Amino acid sequence: MSLDSKITTLNSWLLSRPKTSGMLVFIILLSVFNLSIYFRYQTVKEIEQHDMANILGVVKQNIEQTMRNSYVATITLALTIDDSGNPKNFEEVSKSLVNSYNSIDAVQLVPNGIIKYTYPIKGNEAATNFDILHSPLHRKAALKAIKTKAIYFSGPVALKQGGIGVVGRLPIFKKGKFWGFSAVVVHFNTFLKSTGFSTFKNDKYYFQISKINPITNKEEFFLENKSDFSKSDYQKVEIPEGDWTLYIIPKKQSYLLAEFFPIALISFCLSLLCGLFVTTLLKKPSELQEFVKLQTSKLRRSEFLFKSIFDHAGLGISHINSSTGTFIDGNDKFCEIIGYTHEEIKELNFMMITHPDDLQLDLDNMERLRKGEIAQFSMEKRYFRKNGEIIWVNLTVSPLWEKDEKIKTHIAIVEDITKRRASEQLILESQQKIKDLIDSIDGIVWEGNSEEPGITFISKKSESILGYTPEEWIADDYFWRKIIHPEDRDWVIKKSAECAKERKPFDSEYRMIHKNGNTVWVRDIVSIYHESENSIKFRGILIDITKSKQFEIDLNNSLKLVTEQNKRLLNFSHIVSHNLRSHTSNIQSLINLIELTEDKKEEEELLALLKSVSEALNETIDNLNEVVSIQTDITPVIEDLNLNKYINRTLEVLRDQILKNDADIRNNVPETVTVKFNPAYLESVLLNFISNSIRYKHPDRKPVIELNSYIENNFQVLEIKDNGIGIDLKKNGDKLFGMYKTFTNNAESRGIGLFISKNQIDTMNGKIEVESTLNEGTTFKIYFK
Amino acid sequence: MPQKRIYIIDDDPIYQLVTKRLIEKTSLFSETRAFVNGHEALHYFENTGDLPDVILLDIEMPGMDGWDFLDELIRIEKNCHKKVTIYVASSSIASEDKIKAQNYHCVKDFLSKPINLEKLKVIAEAE
User: Fold this and answer.
1) Which UniProt keywords are given for this protein, alphabetically ordered (chain B) (predicted)?
2) Does residue B72 form part of some domain?
3) pTM listed for this prediction
4) Rounded to the nearest 5 degrees, what angle is found at the Cα of B64, between the Cα atoms of B61 and B68?
5) Which CATH architecture is the domain A441-544 placed in?
6) How many CB pairs (< 8 A) connect A and B?
7) At what angle are helices A254-312 and A18-79 packed, to 10 degrees?
8) What is the pLDDT of residues A194-234, one digit of tens each?
9) B64 to chain A: nearest residue by CA?
10) What's the total number of domains in chain B?
């Protein structure tokens, strides 16, 4: 068990560490491969050593064979020496020896160390009589042979007869006394051939032969390739007959490496590959394992989170069967909101506790949710609590099925908004109160957000004051401009725009046009409110001041009237003073003259003048009386008078004058026209104007007088148009209706007629207008109220 | 000092007559002439080039009144190279007429009617 668990632990340890595991695999594989390569290397090496030993053995035998042959040859040669010490049949024996032993190139007999006999002589002539015992090169080897009394090979050494060769010398003793040597000469090449080196010549090994130089005592090598091989795995064998050492040397130590390097490389790569493979292989599960672990922890966390949310949320959360509407579960808050316990809600469905007025909308929403028309929905609705209390909640329903999945359950999140609803209600009520308050203000209250035309709010009072609804105002940015009285529009817009631009309050009185066409005087007071740095609000109130304005206008009119009357009175007093004074001064002057004169006739003449002055004075006083009577007659009788009838009567009075002046009177006044006027005044007015028109006729043409009547601005107008001399209105306009103002030299003009007529018309609240061009004619317009 | 010539411009025939007679009786002036209004006087001045030393001028007159006459006279004066002394003689006591008269350079004084001996003497002796 413990082992199993250890393995499992190790497994998971390895699985979770792909890199380490990969490295391990790599190392293990590499070691295994290396080991096997090593063993293989060792084996090959051993085989090689063995091979070398074999070859060396064969070579040694070959050399020994040569030496044996040489030995036999020297013995044979030695035997030819007779007791006297002279060789017998040297030539014959030698010949047969050289011929029978390929490895021997020449034989010699060297009595007392001096070469005397040589076969074949050809090519060896130079060696004859060479004293070897006195040659430093050969002496040592020769002495050694004598000493050991056995054949001893010297060389390879430079031969006296030329070339390099090996010389084997056998000391010959005759009767116990040294005779000389029997020698064989083997050329070095022959020697080499006999060794059989060439048969073993291959890439793997080479050979070397060495000998201690007798003179220098240093080891001397004789074969080619004298490179230092002391570090190589060489093998050697000693050949005592010549003091030679035979070496076999492996040619290239690296060839083995070269042989094993690719294998090593391949195995390295293979190991690496395996390591990587393992790493990647393990990596995936490891990653997956990590991922699963992460997901699991996430899942656990989110599960915890959701559990926490569900249990402790400030919102009521319930899980509901979407088909039946029954509650599957609900959190504490939900139970608290609706006042049921966890167990009780499981017996309920949402329809049972929903207010009947909200149920249909809820069910409709659920239906749309089930059909997939909506992804979720929110609504405000009422629940019945267990105790019967009604609460307002904000419900959010989210389905727990995916699209195209079977309809299962849903989550309903419920927030108790009863308090909010109550405060909203309060706000609404207070807003309504403010609105009512604003609407109760006896003026149109409005608000705008910018200098640009257009308003954002206007109180209902606009309907009662100007007849337009707030909707009509709001709909058109230029509405206000449009309903300003045309005569006031331009200056009001200009001024208000200026004030708005300069952020100055605006307070002006102007006229607006009511929807029914009436003129309404308003006072417009506009204030500016800075809500924040960049936000500005214009608030204003339009107060209906038509009544007070009317009073003001009436008052102004009265003032104007009084001023006018005052002026007239002053004028009148001037007139009175002027006229009376002109007469009195004349009287004074006349009396003065009368006193001065002594001539009776002149006195009478002056008295006559005095009389006429007094008459004129009388007439003036009469005229003044008449004027005074008009001005003091505060309530003259006013009747409906047929205008045409009075015109005809006047024309009758003026018949003589009309005939005399051949005047053409064209009366176009309709017979039905009536005017409200004092009868006596009307007679006087008509007489005055018509007679004036005849009186001031143009001398060059027949007078034509046209009478027309029409209605203008609620006035009945009588127009009297003549083609007379005309009046220079520019010069005399202001004096036209003054007393005793005459502008012609006409003898009949008295300067009182128009003055009286004007007074009479003014008293009747009418007015006179005049248009005239000099030498063309005059048109008087009499406006009857 | 030679006697001055005096002309009267007034629409009131009685005033004209009486004043002229008074002047003649006093023998303070060498010549007297009367016109009913400004037009008539101007017409005469333009035709004859005969300008008096003194004019007694009424204001309220039909046709051409005293003020219009004064405006015209300034024009004629320039042509005739003669200076005329004007006395406005009016029965008006309106102060605006007095003020207006003062604006005219050539108007020497504003006299209230009637013109009596004392006033004539002042006119005759004035520079």
Assistant:
1) Phosphoprotein
2) yes
3) 0.39
4) 110
5) 2-Layer Sandwich (3.30)
6) 73
7) 170
8) 777 777 666 677 777 787 776 677 777 777 766 777 677 77
9) A743
10) 1
